[in-house]
Amino acid sequence: ITTILGAFAAYCSALWGGEMQTSYTQSVTVTNHGNTIYLEALSDLNSFEVNDMKDDIIYSQWKDNTEKGDIEDAAYFFTKLSPGLQKDLADDPKDVSEYDKEQAAALDSIMARMNESDHMNDSAKVLLTKGNGANKYGDDFTLCTVLFTIVLFFSGLASLKTHSAMQKTYVILAVIILVLSLVRMLTIPFPSF
């Protein structure tokens, strides 16, 4: 019976080990994907901010030259503006609301990707926690396997031709450890078979 219980505990430990590996692998995969999305969004955010700052500076130069009446320099700076801002200024130099809407939409898209990355990292943490739990259960079943092996050891010692007091001591120790190991094993969640 002890040999069968030990083998079953080792089998459960192996199943929990597989569950742990699967969860850890999924966690790493989701984390890598989330980090890739975050880094791409961060790169886009940096480009967005640089282009926005560039448009602000060039717009100031265009506006100053326009107000001064320097048409040649104003035309030069106008060509350096982003296409969306050029279109808005060409339609109405005092109204850049369409350009502002485009900018807000671009920024919202970048932030949505960053939020998606955060959600993926949260999912990865859940998978990591699941893997840690499976690892603990696997370790607990391994401990039961060791304890069942100790029961077999004491049972083997009891079968040797020694003093009857020693034989009884070995049998009592084996029974106590067997019962405690069995109780311990029954309190550990069993893996999915």
List keywords for this structure.
193 residues, 5 helices, 90% helix, mainly alpha
Can you put this structure into words, describing what you see?
The model has no long low-confidence stretch (mean pLDDT 93). The two termini are 21 Å apart. The chain is an all-alpha fold and 193 residues long. It has helices spanning 2-68, 71-80, 83-91, 97-159, 164-187.
Radius of gyration: 35 Å
Structural class: mainly alpha
Sheet-strand content, in percent, reads: under 5%
Could you state the oligomeric state of the chains shown?
A: single chain
Q: What is the makeup of the main sheet?
A: none
Please count the beta strands (DSSP E, at least 2 residues each).
0
Which blocks of ≥5 consecutive residues have pLDDT under 50?
A: none
Measured as a percent range, the helix fraction is over 70%
Form type = rod-shaped
| Element string (H = helix, E = strand) | HHHHH
The number of helical runs is 5
* Head-to-tail CA distance between termini: 21 Å
What is the residue-mean pLDDT, rounded to a whole number?
93
